[in-house]
Write a structure and sequence with these properties.
Blueprint: E1 7-13, H1 21-31, E2 36-42, H2 48-54, E3 60-65, E4 79-80, H3 82-87, E5 92-96, E6 99-103, H4 106-118, E7 126-130, H5 134-145, E8 150-154, H6 158-171, E9 176-179, H7 187-190, E10 195-198, E11 222-225, H8 234-241, E12 245-247, H9 250-265, H10 271-284
Parallel strand pairs: 1-2, 1-3, 4-6, 7-8, 7-10, 8-9, 10-11, 11-12
Antiparallel strand pairs: 3-5, 5-6
Helix pairs in contact: 1-9, 1-10, 4-5, 4-9, 5-6
The structure holds 2'-monophosphoadenosine-5'-diphosphate.
């Protein structure tokens, strides 16, 4: 009997040792019995050009992109989705014939995790966004696309917060993007906030957790963190103690993966199998 050749999916990045994507996607592929395998491709910055040169010789039909390549892959691609263009970064590439199409499912994954795991709709909501790096930009774009009422950005380096707010304000005129300095947090914003998102690594690896005025948040406020390892970050622990509803970062990771899976396979991703693989992988990983 002729064996069907497996099609290849994967992730490119460096380092990749902590990536949970192979576990999550291979569990999904096995559940749906699809003829693909998902592999990690450890590619250093200086090897990116060679990776794209050799792509046509391999049976790769799609891949995720992670640190440090999310922006540097863009010149190698033939087209970008609207989200990828707005975020200025790509986390998913679809190989269609000779064409490479870039997507970004981080923002959509974030929004879907809010909707499905916390029954939270962004439209018209007041949001506090901690951070102004790449992850905060993806989340800010998602909040703008879904027409949050106001997003207040707080960042350790104030200039980056002002730059991001100015950039997003131009892109999304229906949402107000404001900045609150970290050393003088404007608590009047906090009393109106429906959602607090942490897109920084503060409180991890021995760094200080900001002294945030959580007690000014209304009791219905949802607090979420994009960091998924540990599952309960110092911020989420504190929020839980204060009886706020929390959403850990596994949600965004799962739904960005589900969106990528659908882009490559055109199949509905198996939620239970992917979530189980992801949470088991997280439980076993020692960060
Ligand atoms: P990512 O792609 O994960 O967003 P990044 O672009 O390097 O990574 O951004 C990291 C974000 O976390 C930034 O907002 C950074 O603040 P600065 O702009 O001041 O650098 C924030 N950050 C990282 N470590 C932090 C810490 N120990 N305390 C507070 N903020 C921190």
């Amino acid at each position: 009997m002729k064996q069907k050749q497996l099609k290849i999916l994967g992730v490119i990045g460096d380092p990749l040792s902590h990536s949970l994507s192979p576990l999550m996607h291979n569990a999904a592929l096995a559940t749906l019995k699809l003829p693909y395998i998902y592999m990690p491709f450890s590619i250093k910055k200086e090897a990116l050009a060679d990776f794209f040169k050799s792509l046509s010789e391999r049976a790769i039909c799609g891949f995720n992109v992670t640190i440090p390549h999310k922006q540097s892959v863009i010149p190698y691609l033939h087209s970008l989705s609207r989200e990828a263009r707005l975020i200025g970064a790509v986390n998913t590439v679809l190989v269609r014939g000779k064409k490479l199409i870039g997507y970004n499912t981080d923002g959509s994954g974030f929004l879907t995790s809010l909707e499905k795991e916390a029954q939270f709709q962004v439209r018209g909501k007041q949001v506090i966004l901690l951070g102004a790096g790449g992850a905060a930009r993806a989340i800010g774009v998602a909040l703008g696309m879904d027409e949050a009422r106001e997003v207040t950005i707080i960042n350790r380096t104030a200039k980056k917060a002002f730059d991001l707010a100015a950039e997003l304000g131009k892109k999304f005129p229906k949402t107000i993007f404001s900045v609150s300095p970290l050393d003088q947090i404007e608590t009047s914003h906090w009393g109106l906030a429906d959602l607090l998102v942490n897109a920084t690594s503060m409180g991890l690896k021995g760094t200080k957790l900001w002294d945030l005025p959580l007690n000014h948040l209304p009791s219905h406020a949802l607090i979420t963190d994009i960091v998924y390892n540990p599952l309960e970050t110092p911020l989420l622990k504190k929020a839980k103690k204060s009886k706020f509803k929390i959403l850990p970062g596994w949600g965004m990771l799962l739904y960005q993966g589900m969106d990528s899976f659908e882009i490559w396979t055109k199949k509905k991703p198996p939620y239970e199998a992917m979530k189980k693989a992801l949470l088991e992988g997280l439980a076993q990983s020692k960060l």
